[in-house]
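Bug report

Summary: structure tokens for DUF1877 family protein differ between web form and batch submission.
Environment: batch mode, default settings.
Steps: 1) Submit the sequence below via batch. 2) Compare with the web form result.

Sequence submitted:
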Amino acid sequence: MGMILEFYRLSDEKIIKLKNQSEQSFAEYLEQNYASVYGKEHKENDTVFSLDKTWDVIRFLIIEADKTEHKILSGVYGEPLNGSFYNGYNFLFSENVKLISHTLQKIHYEDLLKFYNEEKMKSQMIYNATNFQLKFLKEEFEILKLAFEKSSQLDSALIINIG
């Protein structure tokens, strides 16, 4: 599993175009325009939202905290653009971004801590956050919420780079 996860904000139409390209072509486009700090679309906390090592713990916690009937937050990291879930690119169209954002905005950091259980995370092969890393969890959770909130407000889709 990768140590970094990034969200790239772009349009539904752009994702459709990327899905119709070869894996190499869309990977090069995303690397050059979003992943690279010199990319023309790379604007931190606007078009690019980066999470560090705690992303898998955050995913575990928000799914545990999700009170919706269909556990909508289990789809927070989208579906594969092409290839596999890990070490690749996933996507969420704007409609799903809005649904997830609506649910995500109702969760507060303190709510997540109620579900922090290292034993349960270990049994589910979740990256094992320690107390030292807990201080980063709040900041990373706020970045996740910002990515969805901003994308939802701007009717944008998201590409998720797990790598």
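Above is the batch result. After comparison, the two runs are identical; trailing whitespace caused the diff. The CA atoms of residues 95 and 157 lie 8 Å apart. The mean pLDDT is 89.
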